[in-house]
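Q: Hi! Curious about what Olfactory receptor looks like structurally. Here's the sequence.
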Amino acid sequence: MIALFSPQFMLLSNITQFSPMFYLTGFPGLDTIEHWIFIPFFLMYLVAISGNCFILIVIKTNPRLHRPMYYLLSFLAFTDLGLSVSTLPTTMGIFWFKSHGIYFVACQIQMFCIHSFSFMESSVLLIMSFDRFLAICHPLRYSVIITSQRVIRAGLAVIFRGPVALVPLVLLLKSFPYCGPRVLSHSFCLHQEVIHLACTDTTFNNLYGLAVVVFTMMLDLVLIALSYGVILHTVARLASQEEQLRAFQTCTSHLCAVLIFFVPMVGLSLVHRFGKHVPLAVHLLMANVYLFVPPMLNPIIYSIKTKEIRHIISKLLGLKNVSTKSWS
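A: Let's find out. The predicted structure is below.
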């Protein structure tokens, strides 16, 4: 690894103001066991990319799955795939080539992709919660309201909400001067970190970034929570415990996806905003869990809980199809 203040790194950093070089720390203090850390990261990437590609291919090639709930699942798989691919170049570059330097333009593109796909995933989870809300609370109107065309249109509209709002936030970073050692603590670029390296007033960026998060991801979380509040109230009014269990089981996969995405996201936001004295290891752990775990677990959860996809997996593996309960 290039020493932080070595002549090589200082030479890379001593370039024009318009294209500064940043240093991705990656995994500080763990240089001696990086080859062991590589194994779980490689497996997470392998599962995330192959699993989400498998779900997209299965839905695309099976006409029986061309239904609203599977279109939503394909949206989720697409955002998870994009999130994994966004962090892949720099993270694997550190492991394989000990490459810690990244130019500003590349860093700008990466942070835009990471945050965009995060906002997309939040939006998709919101639409899926509305789908579950209608399926349980208004089952007779479900097929009338939730049609394939409406799902695709709503999905595309809501998905591009976050990236459009991010454009000025990311572009403004280019106008800032960056002083001192341009060191980022992760193996990828995040807006929260890059903005702290600017040696000028960044009040607008901070307030605008906070507003974007509040009116996208936080608003999505509130609406999802309200949807589940109504769902739980409806399920509690069902006559038998068996009906209650059957109705709630249709939400388990989506609820798991919501928890594994929003819990680390809220934790990471709190740590970056208020955790100035929190150990660096906590920052690294929260960021890695937030970006790597949901894309890995979502295809596993939905492959296990989705009857049709599990049936296809059983056929591919030559196993007998096990009777399953409903989709979730």
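A: A fun detail: DSSP finds 13 helices and three strands in the chain.
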